[in-house]
Amino acid sequence: MKNQDHISQRWQYFQTIHTSLSKGGAVSSETLAKACGLQTRRLKDYIEDMRQDYGAPIDYDWKRKGYVYSNAFDFDISLKLNPKEVNTIELALNTLKQFQSLKMLEDVAFGIEKVEKMIKSKFSAPSQQFIELETMPPYKGSEHINFFLEAIKACQKVFFYYQKHEKNAEPETYTISPYLIKEYRNRFYIISKAEGKEGYRVFGLDRIVKPEKMQILPAYFERERDFKLSDLLKYSYGLYISNEKPQEVILSFTPERGKYQKPKVLEDNETEYKICYQLKINTELVQDILKWGAEVLVVAPESLRQQIKEYHQKALQHYNQVVSLS
């Protein structure tokens, strides 16, 4: 509450200084200080804040021995925000700052900085930080977002070279009908239909090579009106699109790990938390199950159970070999 009182008082000082100088003529330091209820030294600090934070053209006229506006200045004193609104804006600014590395946001980065400076000046105590979000890594491939966004809006086909993850794979060319740009786990993807391929496909923007040869073609496509990414991912784990049928995946978690899971619960007792998914099994699911380690046991299907078991056996063999070598 003390912090909010300080912020409100600071804003009142700005209002008083602005009102006094807007009447015209030079206003002495003593007169301004008395109007604000401040010592002259503190008054100078607030005048400097108005100059730095709002560009207030406040000069000291030595002939008339007082402060003046050197030119007309409209100081907006109408902004009134309650603490909840201030917190919401600060959170939004922090969120936007996470994406400042995106090339498409370079032009607004300065605007974000100005708004943040204004909010801090009016409503936050100096040098205080109350929330910090995780620093996002640079988004490789984000430089292509505007390119694909233009094609999506115009319903135009796109040509590009694409390098798959497989070792020694040669770049392949694709002509696609782009539908949607999707961000997932700090990477951007384009959901599309590719010529010569069935169904929808996912391309990572960071895997696009030879960007100088990318083209928006003078060829248009008719967008399917019933397209919904949520329908395509209904039985998917992560960003995975395929025509395969989902399988019943049953996992038995320790009670501690299980409380973070949200699908259909089969068992919930002191020894296990058993849950059931309907999923299309993919590499990402396997990797996450391995990441949970001893806190999860695959009950079904048997093929997935064996796959996880083999991974753990290989890991154990590796550790045993390291111990014997030492």
List its traits.
alpha+beta, 4 domains, 6-stranded antiparallel beta sheet, 4-stranded antiparallel beta sheet, elongated
Question: How would you describe this protein?
Answer:
This protein has 326 residues and is α+β, with helices and mostly antiparallel strands. The protein folds into 4 domains: 2-69, Winged helix-like DNA-binding domain superfamily/Winged helix DNA-binding domain (Arc Repressor Mutant, subunit A), CATH 1.10.10; 84-123, no CATH class; 144-232; 247-323, no CATH class. It contains 10 helices and 12 strands. It has helices spanning 2-22, 29-36, 40-54, 83-97, 106-123, 145-154, 229-232, 255-258, 283-292, 302-325, and strands at 58-61, 66-69, 156-162, 172-184, 187-194, 200-204, 208-209, 215-220, 247-253, 264-268, 273-279, 296-300. The strands form 3 sheets. Strands 3, 4, 5, 6, 7 and 8 form a 6-stranded antiparallel β-sheet that branches. Strands 10-11-9-12 form a 4-stranded antiparallel β-sheet. The protein has a two-stranded antiparallel ribbon with strand order 1-2. A hairpin with a 5-residue loop joins strand 5 and strand 6 (200-204). Helix 4 (83-97) packs antiparallel against helix 5 (106-123). The longest helix has 24 residues, at 302-325. The radius of gyration is 30 Å and the shape is elongated. The N and C termini lie far apart (62 Å). The relative contact order is 0.07.
